[in-house]
TrEMBL record:
Residues 1-82 form the ATP-cone domain. Pfam families: ATP-cone (PF03477), Mrr_cat (PF04471). It comes from Flavobacterium xanthum. Keywords: ATP-binding, Endonuclease, Hydrolase, Nuclease, Nucleotide-binding. PROSITE patterns: ATP_CONE. GO terms for biological process: DNA restriction-modification system. One of its GO terms (molecular function) is endonuclease activity. It comes from the Bacteria. This is Restriction endonuclease.
């Protein structure tokens, strides 16, 4: 059966690919098989992947909110927009979870001009600038122009003394992080130029998806027991990760949740982060 991707491309439906993504939600094999059968019965020639996703999400939510939340990860990261402001804070949290010291939104003076840096990180005395490229559209990709531009900024900053963590720090490394993907030319250029890339699916074994699952770095936008407005309120309070709710449930009270709703949100958060 032919289905239509977000990009508009027409491809053959793969039940194995869908099954694999459903299993990653944490649902057991029996549940996943039942969901697959239900979806197959409702499918038709030319159905969109977006519609298939909606059906899968709805069916997973009936089994467990945490399963649906985990399945919703990529969309949840996209919801850290619209301008990418909260995506930068999410990326800072990601580096912090790997024992980096982080600073966000700092302006540094280069050899030629000044530069606003999204995130600066330090680990083992190495300081790196991290540039975040947020895309609202699911199919958008960061092409070779992105590392070309960021390399020029990095070259203007590196090997100069900057008052960052200490008075005379040097920025000697550079990362580019995107919520979508990089084109093959962008990856090739970055490798050749010594730039570090991180995207939804790159590097293959240590990308945004795998880092999330390994370290429970789920953004609060994953949660199915909160409304969009409530998620936005948490982000404004600088509550970016689900695990931060578990460690500070008072933030749920601050956004006006009743005790019963707080209980439901905390239950989903705990199951999502495997705290119970």
């Amino acid at each position: 059966m032919k289905i239509i991707k977000h990009s508009g491309d027409i491809v053959e439906f793969s039940s194995e690919k869908l099954k694999k993504s459903l299993l990653k939600s944490g649902a057991n094999t029996g549940t996943v098989d039942e969901i697959l059968e239900t979806i197959k019965k409702q499918m038709y020639e030319g159905i969109s992947t977006k519609q298939i996703y909606k059906m899968a999400f709805s069916l997973l939510k009936k089994t467990a909110n945490a399963h649906a939340a985990r399945y919703n990860l990529r969309e949840a990261i996209r919801l850290l927009g619209p301008a990418g402001f909260f995506f930068e804070r999410y990326v800072a949290r990601l580096f912090a979870s790997e024992h980096y010291t982080t600073i966000i939104n700092l302006t540094l003076l280069g050899k030629c001009v000044s530069h606003e840096i999204d995130v600066l990180v330090k680990k083992n005395e190495v300081i790196a600038m991290v540039e975040c490229k947020y895309h609202a559209g699911r199919e958008a990709a960061s092409d070779v122009k992105v590392p070309l531009y960021i390399l020029s900024r990095f070259n203007d900053l590196k090997d100069r003394n900057h008052p960052i963590f200490n008075v005379k720090d040097i920025v000697s490394s550079c990362w580019i992080v995107t919520n979508n993907r990089f084109t093959s030319d962008a990856i090739k250029f970055a490798k050749c130029s010594g730039l570090n890339l991180l995207s939804w699916n790159y590097p293959e074994d240590n990308n945004l998806k795998t880092k999330n699952d390994s370290n429970s770095l789920y953004p609060v936008t994953c949660l199915t027991t909160l409304s969009i407005a409530e998620k936005d309120k948490l982000l404004i309070l600088d509550v970016i990760l689900v695990k931060e709710i578990i460690n500070n449930s008072e933030c749920l009270n601050r956004i006006g949740l009743s005790p019963n709703r707080m209980k439901n949100v905390l239950k989903e958060a705990s199951e999502l982060c495997r705290y119970i």
